[in-house]
Design a protein that fits this description.
The protein has about 325 residues and is of the alpha/beta class. It is about 30% helix and about 30% strand. It folds into two domains: about 220 residues, 3-Layer(aba) Sandwich (Rossmann fold); about 35 residues, no CATH class. It contains ten helices and 13 strands. The strands form three sheets. The protein has a seven-stranded mixed beta sheet with strand order 6-7-8-3-9-10-11, sandwiched between helices. It has a four-stranded antiparallel beta sheet with strand order 2-1-4-5, with helices on one face. Strands 12-13 form a two-stranded antiparallel sheet. Pfam families: ABC_tran.
Amino acid sequence: MTLQTDAKPRSASEFGADALIVCDNVVRIYQVEQIEVQALQGLDLLVDRGEMIAIVGASGSGKSTLLNVLSGLDVPTAGRARVGDWDLLRMSAADRLAYRRSVVGFIWQQTSRNLLPYLSAAENVALPMSFAGVRSRARTRRTAELLDAMGMGAKAARRPGELSGGEQQRVAIAVSLANRPQVLFADEPTGELDTATGADVFAALRTANESFGTTVVIVTHDADVSGQVQRTVAIRDGRTSSEVVRRTEIDMWGDSAVIAEEYAMLDRAGRLQLPAEYRAALGLRSRVRLDLESDHVGVWPDRAREPHRAREVEPK
Ligand SMILES: Nc1ncnc2c1ncn2[C@@H]1O[C@H](COP(=O)(O)OP(=O)(O)OP(=O)(O)O)[C@@H](O)[C@H]1O
C-alpha cells in the first residue's frame, strides 16, 4: 500500500513534519488542446490535526483544484502533497479508494450530490460503514450517534427529498463522518442555503470538529463562515497569498474580543508577495530596499528610480 513512501520516519526538519496536511510546492497543470492551464502554481499549505480552517479566493484561483487533490480525486503534476501518512502523488487506484473511503470525508455544495435519494437519512449514514465491513449493531449505534449529534435524530427515517437543504447538508456531514475520517473537506457547504440555515450547517461542521475531533477544511465565499474559523487561507493565482488568524483576547474586565490579524505568506525560499495596494501606494516596483530592524523588516522604494535621483546618477 501507499503509505508514506519509504519506511524512513519523517525527519523533524522536513517541511510540515508535524502537520496533518502538507502541500509543498504543489503544481497542477491542465492541458487543454495545445494550451497549458496552471491551476496550482507552487502552492504551500500546512494544516494541523484538529484545526478548522477556511480557504477563500476569487473564481479560478485554484480552490476546487486544491480540494480535488486533497480529497484524492485528482493528482498533482509536481510537488509534494500528504495527508497523514498518505502520499497523494504515489497512491495506486486501490489506495485511492481506501483513502477516499476511510481517511477523508467530502461535502459538496449541491445538496443533492451528497446523498442517495432513495435511501433514508439513516440508511445513507449506514452505507459507507457497510462498504467498510462494519457490523450491523455497531453500524446502527454509530448512525444514531451521528444523526443525534447533527440534530437529525428525529428525522432519521426521512428520505432526502423530505428534508430541507440545510437538513440534507447536516445528514451529509453525518454520512461523511461515518467511517471516522481524519479530515472533512467541504466545498461551499452553505452556498445554496439562506443565512440562518447556513449557520446551522456551519454549527454542524463545528460539532464534527469539536466533538468528533475531525480536522475540517472549508472552501467558502461566505464571509460569515470564514469569519468564524481560527484561520482563513486566501489563494490567489494558484498559490496561498495571505492568512487571517483569529484569536480571542480577554481584557482586564473579563470581556472577550476576537482579534483578527492578516499575515502575508513567506515561502521556503523566503519569497514574499506584497499586496497590490501596498505596491501601488508607495510605487514599489521591480527593486526595493530592505532594512533589518530589531523586530521587523522595512521595505523601501528604490530611490534611484525616482525621477530627480535618476537624473543625478544618469551617465553623461
Ligand atoms: N479540468 C480542467 N481542465 C482545464 N482547466 C481547468 C480544469 N479545472 C480547472 N481548470 C482551470 O484551473 C484554474 C483553477 O480552477 P479552479 O476550479 O480550481 O478554481 P476555483 O478557485 O475553484 O474557482 P471557482 O470559485 O469558480 O470554483 C482555472 O483557470 C480553471 O479554468
